[in-house]
Every structure is written in structure tokens, then in C-alpha cells.
Amino acid sequence: MSKNKSFIVRTAGGNKRCGGIGDILAGVIAVCRFWNEDYGLALASRIVRLATGVGYKLEGRGLTAPSIIKELPKVVMHL
């Protein structure tokens, strides 16, 4: 990836941050960088934010990391 590139991901996520989101993001980054080295980081951020947003809509303040993981396949298929 070029050091001269930067991305702004404007996708909104959920209104709650729970433990484990960083671990989820790290795993999604690994997969997305494998898919596309240039846009993998931005794609991973978008995927996790969307999954967090969907999870928050379904679970509210009870959102947990497994709730986010459950939404990841749906978000990827939607994209």
C-alpha cells in the first residue's frame, strides 16, 4: 500500500463500544487485506462498523462481541 493514500470511512457504527471489537477488527483486517491490499483497511473498518450498527439496532445496550460476529456474514453478503 502506498504511504500517500488515506481513507475516511464515514460509515456509522453502533452507539456502544464493547470489549472485543478490536479483536474482531483485527481479524477482519487480516481477511480484507488478503482480498485487497490497497483497500482492505477501509473495507474492514466499514464491515465492522456496519456489523456493530446492525448489532446495536438488534441488541441495544446489551450488544456484545458475539452479537457483532453473528452479523459479519450478513454484512459481507450485503456489500
What does this entry look like structurally?
By secondary structure, the protein is mainly α. It has a domain at 37-78. It contains 3 helices and no strands. Helix 1 crosses helix 2 (40-59) and helix 2 (40-59) crosses helix 3. The protein starts with 20 loop residues before the first helix and ends with a helix. The mean pLDDT is 91.
Question: Which descriptors apply to this entry?
Answer:
79 residues; mainly alpha; 3 helices
Main sheet characteristics: none
Structural class: mainly alpha
- The radius of gyration over CA amounts to 13 Å
| Cα shape | globular
User: What percentage of residues falls in helices of 4 or more residues?
Assistant: 55-70%
Got a strand count?
Answer: 0
Count of helices?
Answer: 3
Order of helices and strands: HHH
Mean pLDDT: 91
Q: Into which percentage range does the β-strand content fall? A: under 5%
Instruction: Give the N-terminus to C-terminus distance in angstroms.
Output: 22 Å
- What is the oligomeric state here? single chain
